[in-house]
Amino acid sequence: MPSLTVDQAMFRHVSTVLRISNLNGLSPLPITFSGTGGLDLSDVDLREADLSGANLSWDNLRGANLRGANLRGANLFGADLSGANLEGADLTEAILVNTVGMTVIGHQDLDR
């Protein structure tokens, strides 16, 4: 039987909850997130969320509201950002290789 760490179990549970929950219209939350990648976060409101250093690789972020989010050093490898709002997001040192549908709207903080 394969072993499972507590962190993996917690993230698998979070992934399941996110898939079955309607998160649209929630107020911005002061969260820090470090997932395992591959989550369906489409149309989720993550305004001003602290996602610094988060593993968002291969996540579905289609239509997500990431306005003002801290994505500093986040891993967005292969993430689908089609229609996502990145206005004012801090993408300093973020990994943006193979992202899908990334549209830059307004000023992103890439220079720091």
UniProtKB/TrEMBL annotation:
It comes from the Bacteria. InterPro entries: 5peptide_repeat (IPR001646), Pentapeptide-BTB/POZ_domain (IPR051082). This is Pentapeptide repeat-containing protein. It comes from Yersinia kristensenii.
